[in-house]
């Protein structure tokens, strides 16, 4: 329990910190914050969160409704997610679990209910975080995905043109060239791990381009993104607070340097580019973002995480899906015109981010359940995309599914994914180039799945390619 | 026959029979007008049925609603006469309405 004295001490420290934020370099601030949090933990004697140990999850049929907990970061890896979500959709579509490692959560599992919550930012706030738990103390990066209007609108508008269609047209040939380079280097004589060779490599190249980040250092972007989205306390992943506090100062330093380099080049008369930093520097609302470190870092982190786990795992997921449903691969080869619709179906089937979180801003009723102001709600897109009320044979992968585009993996409402067109474009080009080269793309062993309640991803997937005979 | 005219950025125009009570988004989808995806099924929640209404018609349609305004402001290349087709209900009075589908929706 917090005493009045510790509360007062916290407030005083926070005031001091705010002052420091505007004057001390960002990387030093993060280091300082780490020491501060360690000291505070020592004084308040709050134990660090226990590590999550994987245990076999019980079959959902064996559990009473009130014991069902879908927050486990092993739900997807152990392959029980479909049965857990289905039980909730059928029997308790707005379901309360008060005792998860991430606090009490309402799970929203039906398509229509998720749409209702996602649209209603008046009733359901995206603040302060959109992941189930909390990031490490002191690392509450401010991101517009976790802001409500009007702040959200200002910040998003400042950066959304980086993925605006006009910009994408400029980028299309570059994306294709890079896909070709990566695919042409793949071995066809032996199996290889698809995840680092294709999915991670292609997304890293894309991110480096969007940020105009030093190309040869692009793997750093992937590393930082994985570090943040893998936070144990936030998503049940494998990055500890200590690791995050180690990695982020480096990110802060490099992004700060990138910002100043850009500004200097622009001042020296260089033609402004279409990259993110330049866009931020040319918008009224974000040109002084460098002086608001947690926002600056937050929004850059948002864009690297947003463009990393999502596209990466859709790139792996598509290959896996076509292996699970081999008739669909034949259908695709017979009619490559189905690629755009298949891209939507891949995103529906994979749903690389399982959910977004909201907080009720007032007492309210949803699906007959009374929800209190301050309660956390988790919109399970991964369940909505398998809702039999919306999608016929929802677990089947059907590349010409008529309503595939209506999947909810991009979210709906003001927070709808702003990179959706870019993601679709990247996947479309990947599949066009794959079909042009390979006769068969076989997954030769069961892929390995990441530990997370948020990212539905693959850490390893061995693939064997057969080149098309000319 | 009453129609709504959808114009593509390429100059192609497509006349779609007007059914009273349907939204313009539903009409476009029922007749496979390219560039109108309507991913959210008409809930004003995705911004993928963006159209630009011909100036002569804009006033007759009235202003955007608040939700629509917010979704459109999240769309790059928003125009003063931009609307979401799912928020325009077809009535007999709209016979001959011409809307342009923005280039970015392809």
Overview of this protein structure:
The complex is a heterodimer of chains A (470) and B (106). With 470 residues, chain A is an alpha+beta fold. Chain A has a single domain (48-467), classed as Cytochrome P450 (Cytochrome p450), CATH 1.10.630. Chain A has 17 helices and twelve strands. In chain A, the strands form four sheets. Chain A has a five-stranded mixed sheet. The radius of gyration of chain A is 22 Å and the shape is globular. The model of chain A has no long low-confidence stretch (mean pLDDT 89). Chain B is an alpha+beta fold and 106 residues long. Chain B has one domain (18-97): Beta-grasp domain (Ubiquitin-like (UB roll)), CATH 3.10.20.30. In chain B, 21% of the residues lie in helices and 20% in strands. Chain B contains three helices and five strands; from the N terminus they run E-E-H-E-H-H-E-E. Chain B has helices spanning 24-30, 55-61, 66-73, and strands at 3-7, 13-17, 50-53, 82-84, 97-100. A five-stranded mixed sheet of chain B has the order 2-1-5-3-4. The longest helix of chain B is centred in the middle third of the chain and has 8 residues, at 66-73. The model of chain B has no long low-confidence stretch (mean pLDDT 91). Classes of the chains: A alpha+beta (470), B alpha+beta (106). Chain A binds chain B through residues 115, 118-119, 149, 153, 156-157, 160-161, 164-166, 405-406, 410, 412-414, 416, 418, 421, and chain B through 37, 39-41, 43-47, 67, 70-71, 73-74, 76-77, 103-106.
The number of domains of chain A is 1
Largest interface: A-B, 21 and 20 residues
Give the overall pLDDT of chain A as a whole number: 89
Oligomer: heterodimer
Low-confidence stretches of chain A: none
State the share of residues found in helices of chain A, binned by percent. 40-55%
* Rg from alpha-carbon coordinates of chain A: 22 Å
Just name the CATH architecture of chain B. Roll
């Amino acid at each position: 329990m917090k005493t009045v004295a510790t509360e007062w001490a916290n407030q005083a420290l926070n005031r001091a910190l705010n002052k420091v934020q505007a004057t001390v370099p960002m990387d030093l601030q993060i280091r300082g914050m780490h020491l501060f949090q360690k000291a505070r933990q020592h004084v308040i004697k709050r134990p660090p969160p226990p590590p999550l140990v994987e245990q076999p999850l019980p079959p959902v049929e064996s559990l009473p409704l009130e014991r069902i907990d879908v927050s486990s970061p092993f739900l997807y890896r152990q392959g029980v997610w479909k049965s857990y979500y289905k039980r909730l959709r059928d029997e308790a579509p707005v379901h309360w679990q008060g005792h998860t490692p991430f606090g009490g959560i309402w799970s929203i599992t039906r398509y229509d209910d998720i749409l209702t919550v996602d649209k209603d930012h008046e009733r359901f706030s995206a603040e302060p975080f959109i992941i189930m738990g909390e990031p490490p103390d002191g690392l509450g990066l401010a991101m517009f995905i976790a802001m409500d209007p009007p702040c959200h609108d200002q910040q998003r508008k400042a950066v959304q043109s980086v993925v605006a269609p006009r910009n994408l047209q400029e980028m299309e040939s570059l994306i294709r060239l890079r896909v070709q380079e990566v695919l042409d280097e793949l071995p066809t004589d032996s199996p290889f791990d698809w995840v680092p060779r294709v999915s991670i490599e292609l997304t890293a190249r894309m991110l480096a381009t969007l940020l105009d980040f030093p190309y040869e250092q692009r793997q750093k972007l992937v590393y930082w993104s994985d570090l943040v989205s893998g936070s144990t306390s936030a998503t049940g992943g494998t990055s500890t607070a200590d690791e995050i506090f180690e990695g982020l100062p480096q990110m802060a330093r490099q992004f700060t340097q990138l910002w100043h380099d850009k500004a200097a080049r622009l001042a020296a008369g260089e033609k402004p580019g279409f990259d993110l930093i330049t866009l931020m520097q040319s918008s009224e609302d974000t040109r002084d973002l460098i002086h608001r470190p947690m926002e600056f870092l937050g929004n850059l982190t948002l864009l690297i995480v947003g463009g990393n786990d999502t596209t990466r795992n859709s790139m792996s997921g598509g290959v896996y899906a076509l292996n699970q449903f081999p008739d669909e691969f034949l259908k695709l080869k017979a009619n490559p015109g189905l690629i755009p619709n298949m891209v939507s179906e891949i995103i529906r089937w994979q749903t690389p981010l399982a959910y977004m979180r909201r907080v009720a801003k007032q007492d309210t009723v949803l699906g007959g359940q009374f929800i209190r102001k301050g309660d956390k709600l988790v919109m399970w897109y991964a369940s909505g995309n398998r809702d039999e009320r919306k999608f016929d044979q929802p677990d089947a992968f059907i590349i010409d599914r008529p309503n595939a585009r209506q999947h909810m993996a991009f979210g709906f409402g003001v927070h709808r994914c702003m990179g959706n067109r870019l993601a679709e474009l990247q996947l479309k080009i990947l599949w066009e180039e794959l079909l042009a080269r390979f006769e068969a793309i076989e997954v030769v062993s069961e892929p390995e799945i990441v530990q997370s309640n948020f990212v539905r991803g693959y850490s390893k997937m061995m693939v064997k390619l057969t080149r098309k005979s000319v | 026959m009453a129609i709504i005219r959808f114009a593509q950025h390429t100059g192609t125009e497509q006349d779609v029979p007007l059914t009273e009570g349907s939204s313009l988004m539903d009409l476009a989808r029922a007749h496979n007008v390219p560039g109108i995806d309507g991913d959210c099924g008409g809930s004003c929640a995705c911004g993928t049925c963006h159209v630009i209404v011909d100036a002569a018609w804009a006033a007759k349609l009235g202003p955007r609603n608040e939700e629509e305004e917010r979704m459109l402001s999240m769309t790059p290349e928003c125009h003063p006469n931009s609307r979401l087709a799912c928020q325009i209900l077809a009535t007999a009075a709209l016979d001959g309405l011409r809307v342009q589908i923005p280039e970015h929706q392809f």
